[in-house]
Amino acid sequence: GHFAPPEGGAELIDPKLRNSHEFPKWLNSEETREKLHGKKVMMYCTGGIRCERASALLDQLERQADDGSFKTDGVVMVRGGIERYMRTFPEGGFWKGKNYLFDRRFEQVPEKKSAHALAKDIESQCCVCSAPWDLYRGQHKCVGELPAPARKCDVPVLVCDACQQAGTHWQTKLLCPLCKEGYVAPQTMPALPGDAEAAEAAAAAEAAAAA
């Protein structure tokens, strides 16, 4: 799921992340910086913790650009993340879809939103037959190839019940939406304060061990 801003509201930016390790590279890309420069940024995540880290990284990148070439108009976060937002707005508010969880609950939905309304919100599809589907079951993962060092995409993908019951001939079709469109994430990691010191310390430790 995702937030669906009202007409005339904020622009929703999809960072197209396969995993959280890609976020610094996405934030460091020229395209992202151009979109965020001079804008008020609202971040949200499942429970709020990753937003704290993301906003700290954004602050570092802004301070590095001391010439003013990259500066937002401030960052706000959804306190408590999507989980708290759904409890605060049990009919859904501006949230569309489900909140995917990394535990046995699997997902969270607005308590007072009808099953019909939830069904209308579905934008995701079975990666095999493209039928509307939003349940992660079976621990299926994308087989798409990525540039080194990742090599393999390996993110969870959606496979509907009908395709799972049809057999295993569809295994080669297990591609996430990003791999299907051939998307390659930005590859340049930002040079952050402390990186040089960490590299020097590692080199010194290696030299000491060799001695």
Automatic annotation (TrEMBL):
InterPro entries: Rhodanese-like_dom, Rhodanese-like_dom_sf, Rhodanese_C, TrhO. Pfam families: Rhodanese_C (PF12368). Residues 22-94 form the Rhodanese domain. This is Rhodanese domain-containing protein. It comes from Coccolithus braarudii.
